[in-house]
Amino acid sequence: MAKHRTFPLQRLRRARVFQYVLVTIALSAVRILGALPARWVLRCADASALFVALVNTRARRIAYENLGVVFGADFPRAERRRIFHGTYRNLLRSALILAHVQPLTEAKWRRWVDMPEGIEDEPRFARLVKEGGLIVSGHLGNWELLLGMRVAFQRMPKTVFLAEAIPHEIINAALMRLRSHADLLTALRRGGARMVARVVSEAGIAGLLIDRNVRKSQGGIYVPFLGLEARTTPLAAWAALRYDKPIHTLTCLPTPDGRYRIEAGDDVTLGIEDVPEAQRQYEIMRRLNHVLGEQIRRDPTIWQWRLKRWKSRPTEACGRYPRYSEHDPD
Question: What would the pLDDT profile of 229-244 be if each residue is shown by its tens digit?
């Protein structure tokens, strides 16, 4: 049997020395970005986004397929291009602003984010603050600043966010250092279920992004997302039902002036006792996906359309699913 061959560039990316060089460059960029005015950071991010969107043909193909799935095959190409550029603008702004605000403080965070006055004292969040629970979001707007909101909520209990791991141990460690502040813990998704269960059971708060494809072998269940069944992690619903905790959606969405605003949803477990027990987990995830989907439809540029969200499909025939999808039956 022929051995699997890797291209020189792939071997370079896996080399530890390459990772060390990349992290050194990135940390130097953090110091530079921290000294720049905010408007320059945005300009750097937008220029980088334009370049990446032009050269990353693979991501563009995936994004165009996803947009066709959601908005129809006749969705104008010019609109697909505009939304795809928005995808990378949000991605690069999230990354560069994360570097710009280091070390993160409440004053720096509030310079970028508008948060409703007194939101921490609203009755609908009283149970979350007092008993702990879960907050759920997706790759919408600036999810990095969303993680940083812990610095503005001094009365919040112990909080952990699950983050996606990339296949580079050294780079992962550097990202964890940038994301961890104000007693906020960040954990990689591998083994994250145990962390979520422990934190939530101890009256803490666990946060996670739920808009990535999670195969059946990893526990994913099919739940509608933007009009099409998509494999979704049921971890948030499982923890909420297991420990009788609330779940709120939380997003950090862009505003026309280059800043962001926090949008917080109501507890999606309200009234769940009226749903048959066997369907409660699914119903909670359906409600969560619906809230995120409505925000994306309101402004499609805020979401990362480059993600292979529908990599799994429940049917053998491709049908409405994008061409990159694979049959993953229940």
Answer: 999 999 999 999 999 9
Concatenating the DSSP letter of every residue in 192-232 gives HHHHHHHHHHTT-EEEEE--S---GGGT-EEEEETTEEEEE
Spatial separation of the C-alpha atoms in residues 204 and 200, rounded to whole Å: 5
Distance CA 154, CA 107 (A): 13
Residue 12, pLDDT score: 43
Looking at residue 85, its amino acid is H
Task: Tell how strand 312-313 and strand 260-264 pair up.
Answer: unpaired
Task: Say if strands 260-264 and 247-254 run parallel, antiparallel, or are unpaired.
Answer: antiparallel
Which residues are CB-contacts of 146 (< 8 A; sequence separation ≥ 6)?
A: 137, 250, 251, 252, 262
pLDDT at 66 over 70: yes
* Rounded Cα gap, residues 149 and 172, in angstroms: 21
Which has the minimum average pLDDT: 37-51, 55-69, 178-192, 236-250?
Answer: 178-192
Q: Looking at residue 173, what is its pLDDT?
A: 62
Side chain identity at residue 39, one-letter code: R
Largest CA distance in the chain: 65
Q: How far apart are CA 141 and CA 57, in angstroms?
A: 22
Residue found under tokens 């505009």: 82
**By the 8 A CB rule, do 192 and 208 touch?**
yes
Give the count of beta carbons closer than 10 Å to the beta carbon of residue 251. 24
Q: 163 with 186: CB under 8 angstroms?
A: yes
Q: Given this model, what pLDDT does residue 105 score? A: 84
Are 89 and 305 in contact by the 8 Å Cβ rule? The answer is no
Give the span between the Cα atoms of 312 and 322, in whole angstroms.
10
The strand pairing partners of 184, in sequence order, are 159
What is 48-79 written as a DSSP string?
Answer: HHHHHHHH-HHHHHHHHHHHHHHH-TTS-HHH
Task: Output 314-320 pairs: Cβ under 8 A, ≥24 positions apart.
Answer: 314/222, 314/229, 320/69, 320/228
Residue 31: enclosing H or E segment and its boundaries? helix 16-35
pLDDT of residue 7: 44
